């Protein structure tokens, strides 16, 4: 059943996507804009039911619903929506083990990221803004292999085997959640350089999106493009393309205009668009920065009561 939220309680953002889709990178910039002291981040992966070793013995992947305590996750989302703290489980990605639980306090904004946060109606009803991240699959594969080998103790062979074993569960359980998102964000490598990211936003009418006319003008030819299109399910959507090759001067002009749309947060001029490239180097992407600002717009408007509720 729906989770009621009393007035002045947290605004919830959901960011769902497959493993290594860029969820944490996207939400990190959003948290910086809102102010880290005003944001609670709940990792849905912490609700894994088994350790990595146990999953191997059972022949399960973490993408399968039965591999996760989704009933507890739903309860915790409802509690935090009412402004209450939770004692949440902790999954250590480095070792693949379950750690002692930790207390998480609700804050003005709650960001929930993970694999299965839209799996049930009860969970979906907790969110004010729902985002699904689906990068180009070749790009996601390179990100996952680099991350798992550098940060999670996998050999290259083990990382590739993990990808292959997850494919069926991804199609069965992760991809169907895409249909529940208000915004679908797809990153693709710009021509001849995968460290310059093009971003495509599918903007569904479940949210009142900002007037992007002035933003499109500031983006200049080739920097921004907005068109009416049809999603893979045949339903009409607005499709916003942000070029990874947008000139820095134009990107700055667009960024300034987007900041002007959320004056409530304009004092938090955090550096945006930061990510780690496939070589492990710190990089900056204008399209990522602008994506972070566009999503933040909806959270700020929801907090001020200016955004309409979901139909």
The dominant shape is globular
Radius of gyration equals: 19 Å
For CATH, the homologous superfamily is named as P-loop containing nucleotide triphosphate hydrolases
Number of domains: 1
* Helicity level: 25-40%
Unreliable residue stretches: none
Topology summary:
Blueprint: E1 11-17, H1 23-34, E2 39-43, H2 52-58, H3 70-81, E3 86-92, E4 97-104, E5 109-114, H4 121-124, E6 129-133, H5 137-151, H6 156-174, E7 183-190, E8 193-203, H7 213-219, E9 224-230, E10 236-242, H8 248-261, E11 274-276, E12 282-284, H9 286-303
Helix pairs in contact: 1-9, 5-6, 7-8, 8-9
In short:
The chain is an alpha/beta fold.
Polypeptide structure, described:
- This protein is an alpha/beta fold and 311 residues long.
- 35% of the residues lie in helices and 25% in strands.
- The chain is built from nine helices and twelve strands.
- It has helices spanning 23-34, 52-58, 70-81, 121-124, 137-151, 156-174, 213-219, 248-261, 286-303, and strands spanning 11-17, 39-43, 86-92, 97-104, 109-114, 129-133, 183-190, 193-203, 224-230, 236-242, 274-276, 282-284.
- It is globular.
- The two termini are 16 Å apart.
What would the keywords be for this entry?
single chain; 311 residues; alpha/beta; Rossmann fold; 8-stranded mixed sheet; two-stranded antiparallel ribbon; 9 helices; 25% strand; globular
């Amino acid at each position: 059943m729906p989770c009621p939220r009393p007035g002045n309680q947290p605004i919830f953002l959901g960011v769902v996507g497959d493993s290594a889709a860029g969820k944490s990178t996207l939400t990190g910039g959003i948290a910086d804009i809102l102010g880290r002291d005003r944001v609670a981040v709940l990792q849905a992966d912490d609700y894994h039911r088994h350790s990595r070793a146990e999953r191997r013995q059972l022949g399960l992947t973490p993408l399968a619903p039965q591999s996760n305590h989704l009933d507890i996750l739903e309860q915790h989302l409802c509690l935090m929506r009412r402004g209450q703290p939770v004692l949440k489980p902790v999954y250590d990605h480095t070792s693949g083990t379950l750690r002692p639980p930790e207390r998480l306090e609700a804050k003005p904004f709650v960001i929930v990221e993970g694999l299965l946060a839209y799996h049930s109606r009860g969970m979906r009803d907790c969110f004010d803004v729902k985002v699904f991240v689906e990068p180009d699959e070749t790009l996601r594969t390179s990100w996952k292999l680099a991350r798992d080998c550098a940060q999670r103790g996998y050999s290259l062979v083990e990382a590739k085997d993990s990808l292959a074993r997850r494919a069926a569960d991804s199609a069965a359980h992760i991809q169907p959640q895409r249909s529940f998102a208000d915004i679908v964000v797809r990153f693709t490598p710009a021509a001849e350089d995968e460290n310059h990211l093009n971003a495509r936003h599918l903007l569904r009418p479940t949210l009142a999106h900002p007037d992007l006319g002035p933003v499109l003008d500031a983006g200049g030819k080739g920097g921004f493009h907005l068109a009416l299109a049809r999603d893979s399910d045949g339903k009409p959507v607005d499709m916003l393309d942000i070029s990874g090759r947008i000139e820095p001067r134009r990107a700055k002009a667009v960024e300034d205009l987007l900041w002007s749309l959320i004056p409530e947060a304009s004092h938090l001029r955090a550096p945006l668009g930061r990510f780690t490239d496939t070589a492990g180097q710190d990089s900056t992407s204008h399209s990522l920065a602008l994506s972070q600002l566009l999503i933040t717009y909806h959270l700020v408007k929801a907090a001020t009561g200016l955004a309409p509720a979901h139909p």
